[in-house]
Specification:
Elements lengths: L35 E7 L19 E8 L3
Antiparallel strand pairs: 1-2
Length: 72
Amino acid sequence: MLAGDDRLDVDPAYLRVGDTFIQLFRLSVPSEAASGALLLQVGVYDPETGARVQTESGDDRLVLTTLTWAGP
């Protein structure tokens, strides 16, 4: 893991079924990171248990895309 962020900028108590919100993150790749493919992944926590929610395949994260890092 090169960079991460673990926060939610919306109060879940005010969310209702059908609501949509946008969460923006700015992640910086450390300059010492090797060039190559980087996976952009997300995970979601269950608000009642604090455990990561699992996908149908049993993973606790979802790969959104692969990014190519050419280095500094």
